[in-house]
Amino acid sequence: MKTRIYYLFLPFLAFMFSCDDFDRDEQLEYLGENVNMSTPLTVSQTEQYVLLEDFTGWNCPNCPKGTEEINSIISQYGDRIVVAAVHAGAFARPKPDNNNLDLRTDYGEKLLKKYGILSFPSLMVMRNGETSSTPSAWKGKVEEFLNSSEHDANISLGVDVFNDTLLVSTQVELLNDADGDLFLTLYVVEDGIVGIQNDNGTIKNDYVFNHVLRNGVKEDMPLSYEPLQKGDKVSKNYIMKTDAGWIIDNCKLVAILTKSNGNVMQVNQIEING
Amino acid sequence: MRRLLLLLIMLVSGLVVQAQGIFGGKVTGNFQWDIQASREDSTIGAEKVDEKLLNNAFANINYVNGDFSAGMRFEAYLNPILGFDSQYKGAGIPYRFASYKKDYLEITVGNYYEQFGNGLVFRAYEERNLGLDNAMDGLRVVARPLDGISIKGIIGKQRYYWEDIWDSDNGLVRGLDAEVSLNDLVESWKNSSTRMTIGGSFVSVYEQAKPKYVNIGGSDYRMSIPENVGAAAFRFDFSHKSFFLSAEYAQKGQDPNAVNGFIYRKGNALLLKTSYFIKGLAIALEAKRIDNMSFKSKRDETGNMLNVNYLPAITRQHSYSLMAMYPYATQLNGEMGIQADVMYKFKKNTMLGGKYGTEVKFNYSRVHSIDKQPLEGYALNQAGTEGYTSDFFKVGDELYFEEVNFEINKKLTNKFKLNLMYSYQSFNPVAFGHPEQQNIYANIFVADGLYKFNRKHSLRTELQWLLTEQNYGEWAKGDWLQATLEYNFAGKWFFALSDQWNYGNENGDRTHYYNVSLGSTYNTTRISISYGKQRDGIICIGGVCREVPASNGLFMTITSSF
Predict the structure, then answer these.
(1) What percentage of chain B carries pLDDT values higher than 70?
(2) Is the CB of A29 less than 8 angstroms away from the CB of B218?
């Protein structure tokens, strides 16, 4: 009897004896850099811009209020505000009720999990780890960053479209010495997607979703393998794939410069004109 | 909370000292306090010690009552003595445990040390002289369901200085080991002169992946980092009368880490040991091959901490200081070597044995790199690739270490014993990460004589002579001489004088590293104090090493047990 009891543990062995081995083609993910091609930089900046990531979903009744608040912030501060509407979680899950329109992305789900976001809408400003589900408080949070004296880098951008490919050129200029490694994340947001939205219990059939985060994110690409100092300018070119479902003229490319702790140092965006 | 616990334990231990038994159980413990005062000495490179006084101390207090035991260890590094990592600074209780045996189970909660087989896939241990402590914190269960069968299960995290490991990103270590002694299992083999034990173990470390990037040929890539890294080993021990053979083979899954340069190549290790002895003669042979076997519970860690496994050295561990001047360090990324030991004892009343017999020992070891060939289109050990290919049986070009030792132990008279030793060592600084240094070829001679005047008085003299034409860094240039005189008197006191002289340092100061020490032993308490100079150097225990900086000053040690 006393030995038979050990059989109870056998099912666990299958889990224990597993280890994560990657085949050769799974070991490395090509980050799409091609140093031989570039496109002119057409957008630059001289001020600190602020990134707003709005966690939202079509079935989230309070989310349109959040969107209104964001629109109000944009109308006041213009280009300095860069927005990504991250459709993620249970409220964004497609159903026949919304004609199965799926605006979720792998990256959005990953952010949701990483920052432990449960309440919708939730706004995260500059990825400082804090989220707020009270739209009336958002403007104040955004202004904290807008009024901050921190301004450590500028990003210049250029983008060209070739068939289903984007050629993205970036240049990061350091205004202060970098404290640790820096990373660049590139993603596409799309305006003007029409779909169904639950607006405080009312189903709106022709709701327009703007700033929608799209798939194909180039995530946390190292800016340099050497420590960066004030005055350094780092130029990099990337290739990204577009999706047939996107209306490319409604899309913008967002470039986010992050520190190794994930906090955003600078952000900029450029319209993609097919 | 920690202070409260400490106070409580001190109160309990106070009671215990008065009455060694408590609740019918037994309390044991030991204590050590090292105090160092070193001053700046530019001639030997001893740096200024701001604190003037440095202290390392620990006390173990264990309680045993039948099948139940519990214990703790208090440690204080205020501040750590020279050569210990400054991250040890502080005091507290890093080790506490409770354990009980019931039926066929032994359960330990809290901290524990453990080893599977030879340790190729798992060994949690402490080596105080190296400042190394890989104690696990978690659970351990040992089951012995049948005679001859032992199953161990472990889970937990490893100690990392004073870091709150449960709030850290360090990996979680899980393991299982099973061992079967066939002689104990099979009734008819119980009294056989042939004995066989087989065992197998599996260990897995879970560590959350963090982004890791490589640049290959001008392009950036993100690496897929395995979050679960597994290692398995199989072993057997076989003996027949005076013949013994043991083997262990271990394999590790993909584990790109800071030690191996973030390559995906799987690791493996093989350890073979055989020995034979008859009256007066013992022969032992060992062979080892390691390929990419650094296994840590944190993939970015490079030091001695957080080692999940242990790869034993197959070179001789020396106690004479000049013989230990150029020690060997196990090369976790790849090495293959052999060691042979022969010991013969000439019988009493023979021509070579003389009146008291003569013991002769021979030891030889040689360790090479393993064969490593670059992958087509990549540099050798390119991060983000398999790193290299390796022919298992091909010996690498680089000789890491070679040593020949002869030793004669001879009791010449009723009162005088003599130990003579010769060693030839070839030491490759590449193995220590110093390819800019020269290879060292050294001939070392030792004569160690012990004269016993009576039961309570004895005099030991030791002469060591190291001859080499090479220099190693700033602290070891050319030839060395060492003389030691140690007088033990009244059965409990000792007084020693020693001088280590780098007389071969022709371009610099021919420094004398003198040392005077005095000590006493009373029952289980020993106190010693020494004054002198300590040269910059390396100490290795079991192939694991640390560098010891130079010092000039006082050193005091108090040890006690109850």
Answers:
(1) 95
(2) no
Residue A174 domain-assigned? no
The tens digit of pLDDT for each residue in A95-151 reads 998 889 999 999 999 999 888 888 899 999 999 878 888 999 999 999 999 988 889
Nearest CA to B290 among B250, B324, B244? B250
> Cβ separation of B218 and A13 shorter than 8 Å?
no
Selecting from A19, A27, A219 the residue whose C-beta is nearest the C-beta of B253 gives: A19
Residue A71 domain-assigned (yes or no): yes
Could you write out the DSSP letters of every residue in B418-466?
Answer: EEEEEEEEEE-GGGGT-TTSPPEEEEEEEEEEEEESSSS-EEEEEEEEE
Per the CB < 8 Å rule, is B226 touching A21? yes
Pairing of strands A153-162, A165-174: antiparallel
Chain B contact for A34 (CB, 8 A cutoff): yes
| A39 in Cβ contact with A270 (< 8 Å) | no
How many domains is chain A partitioned into structurally?
A: 1
Q: Does A220 touch chain B (CB under 8 A)?
A: yes
The partner residue sitting opposite A19, judged by closest CB among B176, B204, B385, is B204
- Residues of chain B positioned with their CB less than 8 A from the CB of A24: 386
Mind listing the pLDDT tens digit for each residue in A140-180? 999 999 988 889 999 999 999 988 889 999 999 999 998 88
Q: Beta strand A122-125 with B476-477: parallel, antiparallel or unpaired? A: unpaired
Q: Is B109 an interface residue toward A (CB < 8 Å)?
A: no
Quick check: B559 and B43 in contact, CB under 8 A? no
Structure tokens at A132: 């707020």
Put simply, whether A22 touches B (Cβ < 8 Å) is yes
Interchain CB distance below 8 Å, A3 and B228: no
Q: Which residue of A has its CA nearest to B147?
A: A3
Q: Where are the domains of chain B?
A: 313-367+391-510
For the domain that residue A129 is a member of, what is the CATH number?
Answer: 3.40.30.10
Alpha-carbon distance of B16 to B61, in angstroms, equals 10
What would the pLDDT profile of B450-497 be if each residue is shown by its tens digit?
999 998 999 999 999 999 988 877 667 789 999 999 999 988 999 999
| Cβ partners under 8 Å of residue A143, min gap 6 | none
Contact B254 A35 (CB under 8 A): no
Helix (H, G, I), strand (E, B) or coil at B9: helix
- For chain B, the first-to-last Cα distance in angstroms comes to 28
Range of the domain at A198: 49-152+181-225+246-271
B219 part of contact set with chain A, CB < 8 Å: yes
B386 CB within 8 Å of a chain A CB: yes
The rounded distance, in Å, linking the Cα atoms of A162 and A168 is 11
**Identity of the residue in A24, A27, A31 whose CB atom sits nearest the CB atom of B220:** A31
Decide if B218 and A225 are in contact by the 8 Å CB cutoff: no
Q: Which residues of chain B lie closer than 8 angstroms to A183, CB-CB? A: 211
- Picking from A2, A13, A28 by the largest number of B CB atoms within 10 A of its own CB, the best residue to mutate is A28
Helices in chain A by DSSP H: which ranges?
10-16, 24-27, 63-77, 106-114, 138-146
Q: Please answer whether residues B521 and B492 qualify as being in contact, where contact means their C-beta atoms are separated by less than 8 angstroms.
A: yes
Task: Write down the ipTM of this complex.
Answer: 0.70
Would you say residue A1 lies in a domain?
Answer: no
Using a CB-CB cut-off of 8 Å, the residues of chain A touching B229 are: 19-20
- CA dist., res. B309 & res. B514, Å (int): 39
The helix (H) or strand (E) run that includes residue A2 is none
Q: Which pLDDT band holds residue B8 (cuts at 50, 70, 90)?
A: very low
Query: Does the residue A3 lie in any domain?
Result: no
Give the pLDDT confidence score for residue A11 in this predicted structure.
Answer: 65
